[in-house]
Amino acid sequence: MSKLYVGSEVGQLRRVLLNRPERALTHLTPSNCHELLFDDVLAVEAAGEEHDAFANTLRSQDVEVLLLHDLLVETLAVPEAKEWLLETQISDFRYGPIFANELRKYLTEMDDEHLATILLGGLAYSELPIKTPSILHKMSKPLDFVIEPLPNHLFTRDTSCWVYGGVSLNPMMKPARQRETNHLRAIYRWHPIFAGQDFIKYFGDEDLHYDNANIEGGDVLVIGKGAVLIGISERTTPQGVENLAANLFKSGQASQVIAIDLPKHRSCMHLDTVMTHMDIDTFSVYPEIINDKLDTWRLTSDSKGQMQVEKLPNYLKALESALKVDQLKIITTGGDNYEAEREQWNDANNVLTVKPGVVIGYERNVYTNEKYDKAGIQVLTIPGNELGRGRGGARCMSCPIERDSI
User: Fold this and answer.
1) Any idea what DSSP says for residue 139?
2) Please, where in the chain does CATH 3.75.10.10 lie?
3) Confidence band, pLDDT 50/70/90 cuts, at residue 2
4) Most confident of the following: 29-43, 59-73, 143-157
5) Does 71-147 carry CATH code 1.10.3930.10?
6) Per-residue confidence at 305, pLDDT binned at 50, 70, 90?
7) Which architecture does CATH list for 5-70+151-403?
8) DSSP assignments along 22-82, one per residue
9) What is the pLDDT of residue 361?
10) What is the pLDDT of residues 316-331, one digit of tens each?
11) Of the residues 33, 161, 268, 396, which is catalytic?
12) Would you identify the family this protein belongs to, as annotated (predicted)?
């Protein structure tokens, strides 16, 4: 059995979790897309085809691709998992006890394939054949969602992230994404690939309200050699960073966490939208955001298990010391200022490394891809005219589950 372990950002990628965009995207409209955290509505068929091209590019690099929809269907086949997931997602607090009870009954009778499609893709009141005396039901309009679609599940990177020998089940910042984590909690607990396997759950697997301790995987870079780089961003809080760090140290899986403070706006929603690791000594960065002015801290644990926090002069020195390299190569976004800003917005810096010096990125980012190529980084390009509208590139759309160390 291969091991659930992610030892770096750039070692050979062996297994990855993706989610092909399907029903959830059909529910995106100009009037609801912003609430569902999309800037635009996507052409659903085209997005699916682009995603298939991404999955096939990964397979061509000897990466095993797991698809979230399939894993969810196979997890729902375990009676205990189905019961837990319906209790959790269709809770009395969310719907009121009368409606929740009827809705759970209706969903329990569905076959697993259909149920997975509804849990991921949403359900409108007009599609619901049951009538209940519930006030919520009576007050809702036909096009309101009983179950909101989860279009952001496309970005499997954020909901859970594997860091060395364990996983963080991330408490997400935005209500539009919080239900996603429960799907991963169920999969990692009951799906045959994960059930009974030896891995640590660092954070986020309790039935708790995590309050302000938010963390999203797009901010977490497992740079290797026992170090983890985390961005404090629009979606990841200092409280989230410290909680995850404490558990990484307690389990002995990481020796240091480097935290950098990012501006809190959407164009750099996560660290990986402005910075990714492409080769052992090479990073791609968007210099408008990632520069020497960013506050940088190093978190470590002392001999008594107490967390130590020290402020560092800049992020580069911190990374060089963590990776034990004399000088990092930094490749900045390509083109002039206008082109660089456009390409960063279209995820030029958000590439997925499949092995040292080989990355997957959108073909539309021509200036940046050319720069990578000149620096000796091979770019395997994929189409992204539709997928990119969700504001996420190849790294955002992938959750590595098994990857070699450096």
Assistant:
1) H
2) 5-70+151-403
3) low
4) 59-73
5) yes
6) confident
7) 5-stranded Propeller (3.75)
8) -HHHHT--TTTTTTTT-SS---HHHHHHHHHHHHHHHHHTT-EEEEHHHHHHHHHTSHHHH
9) 96
10) 999 999 999 999 999 9
11) 396
12) Belongs to the arginine deiminase family.
In sequence order, what are the beta bridge partners of 298?
Answer: 258, 310
Nearest residue to 347 (alpha-carbon basis) of 289, 399, 286, 288: 286
Overall residue count recorded for the chain in this entry:
406
The Cα–Cα gap between 401 and 368 comes to: 28
Both tokens of 231, joined, read: 């961005």
Using an 8 Å Cβ cutoff, are 6 and 55 in contact? no
Is residue 396 part of the annotated active site? The answer reads: yes
CA-based R_g, the chain, Å? 21
Distances (CA, A) of 248 to 71, 164, 200, 242: 27, 9, 9, 10
pLDDT in tens, 269-283: 899 999 999 999 999
Q: Tokens representing 19?
A: 């989610």
CATH 1.10.3930.10 residue window(s) in the chain: 71-147
- Exposure string of 136-161, with b = 16+ CB inside 10 Å and e = fewer, is bbeebeeeeebbbbbbbbbbbbbbbb
Please name every residue paired with 309 in a beta bridge, in sequence order, or none if there are none: 299
Contact 53, 75 (CB under 8 A): no
The pTM assigned to this predicted structure is: 0.94
